[in-house]
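User: quick one, fold this
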Amino acid sequence: MILSAGEIEKYCSVQGRRYVEDGRLFLNASGASVKGLCRGNVFTISLYSRPTVKGRNAYIRLTLDGRSRRIRLPIGEKTLSFDLPAGEHTFEIVKLNESESNALAISSLKGEFLPFREEKRCRIEYVGDSITTGFGVRAKRADEEYTTATQDVTLSYAYLTSRALDAEMQIVAASGWGLYKSKYAECAIPDYYDNVDLTRNAEKYDFSFSPDVIVLALCTNDFSYLADLSGEKRDEEYAALKRKSITFLRKLLQRAPVVWVYGFSGSESQAGLPAFVEEVWSEISSPRFYTLQVRDSHSLNDICAGHPGKKTHKLAAQRLVRLLRTLIGV
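Assistant:
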């Protein structure tokens, strides 16, 4: 049996925003995944990958019968074939990088597939930047340059939280992006949030994923931008950021309760973020809007490639799990 891109969801559980294009099922977002069940002794995966720039090859985590390994994909087509003992076998493919770094698609799956549906206890959408994507989490030094080898969403607070709560997740995030403005990117998340896949596919998303809660982790890049300004210009941009934050949060609140998680960095440029979040919280004044400050990577001495390391993500996930258990009853 060969499952084409359009047939994969008939047999497998697929997580994350995705789309079919040129005969391929694209799973570009951090944490996007396919999980299924096959029978027999032959299993083949045909993959396609394309980096945004040279060197930013995609990484996946492939789990087969409970055994996992990270795989760096080449540019273009890659076929993975497995000779397995007779019986039933579970498999899962998880995209470890973000859409901004590379594209990942499944062209086809070959084997004897059994219908598989994974029933999760809840659904969580994460809206964020590089922190949510697990940027640099595998880096060994604070000043290490970013590579896709050091980015791993399965070590991020978002993935750890979802695993602890047995939640289906969807991540909408991009490194360097802000809620309003960033000195690292020209794009802002709210301006592309309605797209199927940020800038890679501008078709409008159907919002078929209905979350029980939305976790927002934005404005780190906005405050880095504000830190370079002074006087009247900074005041103007601060006010503009506040207006856009309120507008975007009200939009998200129409879909689900929102938890704004902040405090990951702790750098000097982020000193005003806690007060800003509380300002926005007070102005929105909604019983569906919550805030959560986490331990910062500087105080934990846990900085990897200029970003939070594994310890910071783990502690943030623990705090978020405790809050979400209360909010959504899982």
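User: anything notable?
Assistant: Residues 231-253 form the longest helix (23 residues).
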